[in-house]
Amino acid sequence: MMRLNKKQKFRPSSEAKAFLQYLKERAVFGRQIDAYAFAAAYAMRNNLNISDISLTGRSDMEEVGTLDEEVCLALEAGIHAIYKKNNQPKPQDPQSLMDSITRYAEVGLKNLQEQWSGKTSIQIQDNIQKMIT
Question: Is residue 48 within 8 Å of 107, Cβ to Cβ?
């Protein structure tokens, strides 16, 4: 299974970065990278369509190595499982794997932002709790 390079950086879009900052400022997530990983996992779990997600116009956030190892492994395995299920060729290098995770994180954040619009931090945290239990 292809693994991410720990020195690679997550590169969210400016829209995603603004929403990540919003979530961090309201203490929904302690770190932006955790919210980004959650959004990617959410999108994978809900089989959201990533075909319209562009990888241009992005800025560096944090290195992969700052994520918990188990979270990183779960994201990597999730991508591999989706590609296998859809009979697609698996990512051949760490960058193509990162690109797939990025697409899922971006579409996941868009979906979550729509769901959480107008909600308080407590309501968002309650919604997250329901998703993971």
Answer: yes
**Are 50 and 107 spatial neighbours (Cβ–Cβ below 8 Å)?**
yes
Token reading at 62? 């944090």
pLDDT, one tens digit per residue, over 38-97 is 999 999 999 999 999 999 989 999 999 999 999 999 999 999 999 999 999 999 999 999
Distance CA 1, CA 24 (A): 32
Which residue's structure tokens are 């590169």? 11
Task: Give how far the C-alpha of residue 3 lies from the chain's centroid of Cα atoms, to the nearest Å.
Answer: 16
**Residue range 86-132, pLDDT digits in tens:** 999 999 999 999 999 999 999 999 999 999 999 999 999 999 999 99
Identity of the residue numbered 30: G
